[in-house]
């Protein structure tokens, strides 16, 4: 194991806070001295499906701990998911059914495996312990927290203030999460900044049970591709780890300049000095963004796919047709006796738009061209002779090749 | 069954509120019309031991329902007792162990049997259902209530305002009590005024489960013998149903005049007209108090014991010694060679006081007399000749006869 100071330096990258930091230093030192790995917990509630880069921030930190020789313990909150985690949500979130939770858990873990080395991780399901609990056990747990404590939690406080309901079931969540730490004897727990309250509940429970309390390592919330709100699926400002290389790359290129430092710090392992150089004044941010995009795409699809995605992006930016143009079969009966068709009907047949009226508008705006010479189509009503293999472009992004069938 | 209107008239005596009253009238009418008894619930938490007159207020109402042909359903909250009911308490009350709860329940029921006809009552233990619940069942229950709702409960609100802890476990209590009503399909639930919140929680749960909601019948809180605070063991202002006749009678005679109407209304079946006559201006309240005392003592010890207690009280009030004076053996070695002893030492030997210094003070204040002639003892230091059978009086109440052994 590397010396504690060196580990601390690496682990500090990109984090928001270590609470309490002095305890963490002591834990690292004892671990390095005795060669005993720290048990680093990260809990996942299988309530969603698509892991995006926002989720990867703590997962990458977990992987960093693994690479330093520590033990990653992933808690699948299959039981807690039945309650619904209200953290950082402004509304009550209903729990899921048992079947949904199981399916989500399998799917989630498959995605997590792209970041964490699951072969070296402990994966535990909190249903393993909570499913055996009686009412009395729950009562005993709920004796450890007061309404005052729960109401102090930032998101709950906001909801209480605006008179939105906070259900008692939601109050059980931090206690359950805390108990997970007791069960697995966690030394460190990772989470987003908004998780700090939950991560600290565990400390009291662990001490009650005679265990050394865990340290909370909180990570900043990744901003979405809009550069404004937190990354999230519902806001449409996310980059999913399962998205194809070109989509991922294109999305990275679309982010404003401002969040680039955060993205580099949290989503890549590039040395900070290198990052500083790329983001220095006078350097074209477009170049840095391309490095960022390729680095991120490489992590999920490999360096070749990343290069290809970058090349395709450049071609498109230069107004060139992409290297591969999808061929779309258009049945014979779509054409008239002379083998002709109006352009709006052809665009719909090629699935480049869903309505002929939309297509008509784009044509009138001069957004449709055909053939190698990019001949503009201007009359939406004129039937056009369509040779097999004709290329049709709609707007800047949409393109297809006619395959008469 | 008597007509609903007549029953309503009887049942209204002494109550604080029926919520909602219109529903109760409909239930009574349907019951009288179809001859179907109402199911009247009263829950008891076996957390204490001595049933006092304050507890008998709802129990007597329950008995009245029985006498009108309805079904009394007594819930022994053996499971809820493990949480501790915070109703009307200003502090968190810790739960009991399972063993304590079982012993208390047996003892409690024996005392309740002095008021309710247990042979005609259903007695249910809520551990019968709650002990089978899983964590998920509890979560499902806690989804039915918000922090806002719980915080509105008067006693919780007070504690929250003064920053005293309200434990999450305590918030489960009203939900558990409410679920009891679902299990036994209660039509009416009885309780003290401070129970109104809890009694209404059941209505929501019952409706969620497709049952007609129960009606809450709340009773005023009986004031203690001090005429000021609610009757309670810890305040020392209570009259226990298991206390001896003379103690009960004496305590009734000690109450101020003000709460007499409440005592008559809630603790006796005397017609209201008769009570009005006794409490009319110009009538000596002492006489009314004696009727009250005898009526109450009769309920727990029979009319003869009540009369005897009243007679003994009159004698003592007139300054006479009681009919039976306890004999206390005093060993020979307590006396000097001449068969004498100082009065403070004799008082302690007779167990009339626990310390000689206390006894000395009472002597100096002129509070000690001996013999049939009530000769005052004035010198605490003078040894006194003590014949066998000597009567010693300390203050107004304490008396013993020396039995030299």
TrEMBL record, chains A, B:
Top-level enzyme category: ligase
Alphabetical keyword list: Aminoacyl-tRNA synthetase, ATP-binding, Cytoplasm, Ligase, Nucleotide-binding, Protein biosynthesis, RNA-binding
Matches recorded under SUPFAM superfamilies: Alpha-L RNA-binding motif, Nucleotidylyl transferase
EC numbers: 6.1.1.1
Positions contributing to ATP binding: 233
Catalyzed reactions per annotation: tRNA(Tyr) + L-tyrosine + ATP = L-tyrosyl-tRNA(Tyr) + AMP + diphosphate + H(+)
Record-linked Gene3D superfamilies: HUPs (3.40.50.620), RNA-binding S4 domain (3.10.290.10), Tyrosyl-Transfer RNA Synthetase (1.10.240.10)
GO molecular function: ATP binding; RNA binding; tyrosine-tRNA ligase activity
GO biological process: tyrosyl-tRNA aminoacylation
Database matches in CDD domains: S4, TyrRS_core
Superkingdom of origin: Bacteria
Subunit structure comment from the entry: Homodimer.
Summary of the function given for this chain in its UniProt record: Catalyzes the attachment of tyrosine to tRNA(Tyr) in a two-step reaction: tyrosine is first activated by ATP to form Tyr-AMP and then transferred to the acceptor end of tRNA(Tyr).
Protein name: Tyrosine--tRNA ligase
Organism of derivation: Tautonia sociabilis
Upper lineage: Bacteria, Pseudomonadati, Planctomycetota, Planctomycetia, Isosphaerales
